[in-house]
Amino acid sequence: MTSKKFGIALLSLLVLALLFLATPVSAKTVSDGLTNISAGDTVFLGEAGLNVSSAVPNAAGTICWYSYADAAPDVLTISDKNSFSITGASFAGKLGTWYNGSTKDSGNLAPANNVAFVVADPSLSNVLITDVTAANADVTGKSVIAGDVLKITYQTNLQTLITQRNLTGPMDLNDDHIAAGTGSGLICKVKTPDGAILNGLYGDNKLNGPGITIPLSNLTPVNSVYSILNTTNNMLSVWNTSYSAYPSGTYEVWFESSINDMDTYYGSITGKTISSVATVTIAKETVTITADKETVIRNNPFSVTIEGKPKTDYFVWIKGISTYNNKTGFADMAPYFTQNQKDVNPVNYQAAKLIVYSGTTTTIGSDVPVENGTIFWVVNATTSSSGTATISLSTDGNTKAAVYTIRAAKRTSDSAANDQLYDTVKVKVEKGAVTITASGDGSYYLGEEITISGTDTDTDNVYLFITGPNLPVNGGQITAPATAGTTMVNVKTDDTWEYKWSTSGVTLDAGTYTIYASSKNVQKDGLSEAKYDTVSIVIKKPFVTATTSASTVAKGDKLYIRGTAEGNPTQGVAIWVLGKNYWNGKTDLIAVTETVNDDGSFEYEMGTADTKDLASGQYFVVVQHPMYNDRFDVYSDAATPTRILTQLAGAAAQNSEFIIWGAGKLQGSDAAQALTDSIDSADIDDTYTKLTFLVEEPWIRINSVGDHYVGDVFKVSGTTNLAVDDDLIVEVTSSSFQPTQKTQSGEFSGVSQTVKVTSGDSYNEWAMDVDASTFKPDEYIVNVEAIEADCTATTTFNVLKGAAPTTSPGTPTTGPTTAPTTGPTTAPTPEPTASPGFGAFVALIGLGAVAALVMRKD
224's torsion region: left (phi>0), alpha (psi -120 to 50) or beta? Predict the structure, then answer.
């Protein structure tokens, strides 16, 4: 009986032992639910104590992995499916899908239905630190001011660890975060500047009450983005850096996972933490102010930049200017803040008088003058999310040249500026400079346009005046030199200015003058208050000169009247050509005018049509310049008969001088004299120059040609009264060039060429080179014809057969000892020349007729 009881007891112990052994032993985990792996779940490098029985159902416990689709599988046998680790030795470098069995299609299953699990590298990335105080600005890797409230967030792929494994119990699926006090196994690490690792952070007093510590192991996931969780009320918590526990320096923040011992194993695989490391530097609050320029030329802007706490208000003002002028347009103003700047608001004088700084003894209002309309000397500037604010200040020509101190102080209230958090910067404002130059060489004819230009870095306007003989002592206006005053010129944005001064009509005599350019509207006796510069100019009396292209012109030839008219007459010059029963203005009954070029030159052409019908004889030319008033004071009235009128400067009445065309007109020479007498009047400022030229019948003469031999090279030349550069057609033709019978040969030789008339000593000349190497012996006719004028000339010469005779050489100084044998030489017998042809006969008759006419004329 005892043995039976003992056996039953032993059997009971054995059953209990078997039951104990059949119960799996849990690994060190946050939650048993996190270790149960189903087929297709994602597992992470570093996880330990996983139960993969459901994921790997085959009895052998084999799984396989393919490096690529057709590769041979890597096979791994799991010895303990109830406590399996994703070690680096087995899975590093073999991430991705692992299949149940030794091949991906084991058990006749399709690979998609045979997945055991997917191995992934755990990721805790995009660690981000934002500043709640500064509108959640990203301050990762940047500095914040002690007292700012920060928030730490990150992203991770470990979310799949919770969602795939059907975790229940402590996981609140509706709120999507780990229940309070449980923790998720995701840990935030914060390393202080001295190397200590913090377990918790002080939260914001406004959210959590004073002294509440937020554990760094309580995190909440929201769509894979995690933040530190306040376990008291399940709120997202923030880090208040105002506590003394957080000294100045750089803090490092990163994340690790302790789920299923992942932190331990992961470190052994890669030697690093799971997440990246973010930094933030906590600094004591300071404020600095800097200027973009140490020295400013007045009439130019400058700016100051504040660097302080983000999204913070600072008072900025100019110290020590309370006695400066506050009226726009008057001297000795201080620089002022430019209007309408973003995040920069003006503070009026009444408010500035209440703002205390430097303890309780000084107000900002005591530093500055009363604002003038929209001009302010105190502003409230708000810094950007990066903690900076740039503020522009303006200066003008009335800004006092001085050193200015601009102060920035943190605004603590509407009526106080922090006396400890402030900074100052000094900016020196200097007067600018004025320069002046005049175009050209400084010498000008009255009537010309003079460009006066320069620079002015001091004011927006420059003022010009002129001094010289018998002008106002302190200067006269540029436009009216005899009247005291100045002429204002606007200065461009690049500090340059320019004034185009037309001296036409300006009442100045020839002489030397000085032009002043001043930064202020003052004259010579007030220049001590301004920046100025001077330039000297010489004014000369205008004049006109002219010449004709030839003193004699052949009918039908062109004649040019060329000259120079100084003083830039905008009306041009009047060209009067007068002769017997001739005036070149008779068609329109007004004087012919010619434009004057920029260099003062002009040219008037009398063309072929103008000269071909002119009678031979003398002609008179008067070239009239309008002079100072740029107006012809002697002119024709365009009526019939046409009268020459004069009009004095400023007078409305016109005086009739003489009739130039029509009934009662003066003769050519008398009209020319009367015209110049009118212009010579003391009441007329016009001037003139006069010329004469002769018109002749055109003629061409041919110099004697003489006889030549076949092969000679010679010149056919002559003289003419045609103008230089006129074209002549010169023809040399054989007199045998005539109609022939069909049975006769039509041989011809000769040459034709167009040549130009050139200048000669007494008459103009022409010439043509003739090469007779292709000529046949014959009589030749030379015909010269003008292209434009109606004029020809003719002569003849002979070309002989053989060569031209040569002169016997002289006796040499040395020679052979035996005297040379001499004998009579046979003179070459020239072949008889051919009888003159019909053409030559006709030519001779023509020459005879010409001779007879000449004799009759004589």
Answer: left
Helix (H) or strand (E) holding 363: strand 362-363
- Distances in Å between the Cα of 102 and the Cα atoms of 78, 115, 270, 359, 361 are 12, 12, 28, 84, 89
Burial 484-517 (b: 16+ CB within 10 A, else e): ebbbebebeeebebebebebbebebeeeebebbb
CB-based burial, 206-235: b 16+ in 10 Å, e otherwise: ebbeeebebbbbbbbbeeeebbbbbbeeeb
Burial class of 112 by CB neighbour count within 10 A (0 to 12, 13 to 18, 19+): exposed
Contact present, 762 and 704 (Cβ < 8 Å) = no
**Contact call for residues 560 and 554 (beta carbons, < 8 A):** no
Distances (CA, A) of 6 to 3, 11, 19, 565: 5, 9, 20, 151
Integer CA distances (angstroms), 679 to 401, 505, 510, 572, 633, in order: 59, 18, 20, 16, 8
Alpha-carbon span 646 to 657, nearest angstrom: 7
- Give CA separation, 381 vs 54, 335, 338, 424, 849, in Å: 66, 17, 13, 15, 113
Token digits of residue 348: 């009026």
* Beta-carbon count within 10 A of 767 CB: 15
When pLDDT is cut at 50, 70 and 90, the band that residue 654 belongs to is confident
CA distances from 275 to 289, 369, 371, 679, 751 (A): 39, 59, 57, 104, 106
Residues 6+ apart with CB under 8 A from 514: 466, 467, 468, 534, 535, 536, 537
With beta carbons less than 8 A apart as the criterion, state whether 187 and 256 touch. Answer: yes
CA distance 675 to 684: 12
504 close to 630: Cβ distance less than 8 angstroms = yes
Pairing of strands 700-702, 225-230: unpaired
Q: What is the pLDDT of residues 367-402, one digit of tens each?
A: 999 988 788 999 999 999 888 999 999 998 889 999
Spatial separation of the C-alpha atoms in residues 123 and 100, rounded to whole Å: 26
Place of tokens 């009396």: 541
Angle (nearest 5°) at CA 676 between 675 and 679 = 90
Six token digits for residue 708: 């030549």
Sequential DSSP letters for 535-575: EEEEEE---EEEEES-SEEETTS-EEEEEEE-S--TT-EEE
Residues whose CB falls within 8 Å of the CB of residue 782, separated by 6 or more in sequence, listed in order:
702, 705, 716, 730, 731, 732, 794, 795, 796, 797
The tens digit of pLDDT for each residue in 743-782 reads: 555 566 889 999 999 999 889 999 999 999 999 999 999 9
Stated pTM of the model? 0.50
CB atoms within 10 A of CB 379: 22
Place of tokens 């039908």: 556
* CA contacts within 13 A on the Cβ side of 641: 14
